[in-house]
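This part of the workshop introduces the protein records we will be handling. A record pairs a protein's sequence with a compact description of its fold. Comparing a sequence with its tokens is the quickest way to learn the format. The record below serves as our worked example for the rest of this section:
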Amino acid sequence: MRQIYLLIKAAVFTFSLLIISTQHSSGQMAISYGTPLVTGLVNAVDVVNAGDTRLFIAQQNGLIRIYDGTTTLTTFMDLSGQGLFPNPLGSEQGLLSIAFHPQFATNRYFFIWYTAWDGAVTLARYRANAGLATGDPASGVILFSVAKPGTPYFTNHNGGKLNFGADGMLYIGLGDGGNGGDPFNNAQNVTSLLGKMLRLDVSDFAIGAPYYTIPADNPFLAAGDGIRDEIFALGLRNPWRWSFDRANGSMWIADVGQGNYEEVNYRTASGSSGINYGWRCREGKHDYNTSGCGSLTLTEPIFEYDHTLGQSITGGYVYRGPDAGNAALLGTYICTDFVSGRIWLLQPDGSFILQTVNTVSNISGFGESSNGTLYAIRRAANGGLYKINLLNTTPVSITNLSGTHAAAYNTLTWSAGSEVNTAKYMVEYSVNGNDFTTAGEVTAMGNSGSGDYTFRHDIVMNNTGYYRLKIIDNSGAFKYSSVLRLTAQNDDAIRVTPTYITNRSVNVSWNLPVTKVQLLSSDGKIVFEKGLQSASGTMVLSLPQLPSGIYILQVIGNEKVKRERVFIQ
């Protein structure tokens, strides 16, 4: 039930030329928040729907307001005078999230997540009055609370997002409890609920404790294992905003970083539960505090960015809205940085487009209407509600990115599709596949058709080097190409091509004894296996029908094991 440890470095793939990540081909996209639909929100933190046409906006002070498409907000429920919250409120305290039961229209139940007067993070159940126009403050029942560590208690890292899954279970993202560096190692402590994703069955609506039950397929139910049964995943720092893809049930967790990296974690609906996302052993894809981490199986985030680009990630949603003008966004995950306002549009393989125009800072959350229209809220003394729209598209795509190595230089070539609005290509180089610097710049031809490019990089490369193109449009927005690896060595013992598979067919060639080839899903399960008994040769493998996504193709030989990261379309 664990995922494989995705620290398979690109350096283990040693044959001469390889595309090691895929490119999102729908072109450059930029997001506009537009004019606020309403203003006057006071530190709004969550916006959700209840299965009808309304949006419910939660403010940290305990006021839940309704947006019904007009410029006048109405009050659904006001908890500000109930003595529930700390006084004064810390910046990460108060009412943090609201979630309506999937059958709210008939049972009238909804749930809130907040920090209690003593700091404890708390799940409570409430009920709406008949007619569903208002909530009843007197109906509140506390389902559970978790005390915060520290003396005095730490006020930060409270998590803050409730979501019901397609399975009807309530999922809760908890922060590690606060302060810097998770000083009590709560995220890795399986006896604590802090730093975890929880999964609960709250549909019994019990009137006495226990107010919830543990789903029978939760991952840690073994008697006597010492692990809290509520835990669905662990190793999280502060999953402030996370979501499900309404189309396929995949889970996207934006986890706020420590001092250097923000990250997005991804799990398919059928992926393993019990995943360890790494904090505090890892921050993003980098070691942080590895004490006691040697035997753990950790799962890497699919995406990270460093603090030169922002300081606090706000997770969003995979866009599934109905607007024809936003069709190019379909299937794209949207997130932003709370401080810098930069927006990222992600695919499940981690490929992304970064856009920096028309951004708004202090976006504290995103929300979906019942039909999938996407909204954002801004946390401020006079915050607003925004509707997400696609601003423009630059239909440029990179094909045939390749390179050759010589003694004192490398030559890159590539072809570009229609370059409308494309300004230039920055060629970036890395020695490790992670940290890139600029090698040079090529001005775009601006062709409406296609263009072919060549770039020479004067460098003495003794081992392996990595290249990518930073494609910049006229507005300053940019995206990245796939990453290309060149090696100065000739190690073609085992080759796998292509790594972007569109027709369920992949070529495997080898010049040493091999025994079998396996295809592993992203959670480490073998989904295909075939014996290979020849000492050398080439075979075309026909793969079974599989869901689109990232897989590991593993060729096992007597002398070495080749692991290749592939994407199946």
Summary: The first helix runs from residue 104 to 107. The helical segments are 104-107.
